[in-house]
Amino acid sequence: MRRYELMLVLRPDAPDERTQAVLERVTRTIVADGGQIVKAQPWGRRRLAYPIERYREGQYHILVFEAPPTTVGELERSLLITEEVLRHLVIRIERPLRASKKGEPIDVADVDAVVPPSGDEDEPELVGERIDESESEAAPAAVD
Hints:
Mean pLDDT: 81
Strand content: 25-35%
Order of helices and strands: EHEEHEH
CATH topology of the domain at 2-93: Alpha-Beta Plaits
Structural class: alpha+beta
Largest sheet: 4 strands, antiparallel
Strand order of the largest sheet: 2-3-1-4
CATH architecture of the domain at 2-93: 2-Layer Sandwich
CATH class of the domain at 2-93: Alpha Beta
Low-confidence stretches: 111-115
């Protein structure tokens, strides 16, 4: 199973019962397909960056869950037709590389994909036309 994070922006004028019903429906959808909720955080009312359907605020909720990929597609389809949901976003969370046990070899392909290259190597200089900044329009050359 993969780990996902779901951010829900719900209508600010939705009653608490409807908000809880939406969250319960999301939870049921995830658990019905064998997934599990890892963490649920209500963020409360926050101002939106731009108006959505004439609303300037929204109720934010964050859910971290583990589920098969097919569950996510079904979940997104149901959120698209739910009236209380202004916006939603589901992202996949990459798990960190596990440390190997003593004496167990580490797969080098996994390490290269996760660990960024060190900054010790000399970076090649960009090849191209150089601009002489001493005689540009912004800084004209001094006249004798």
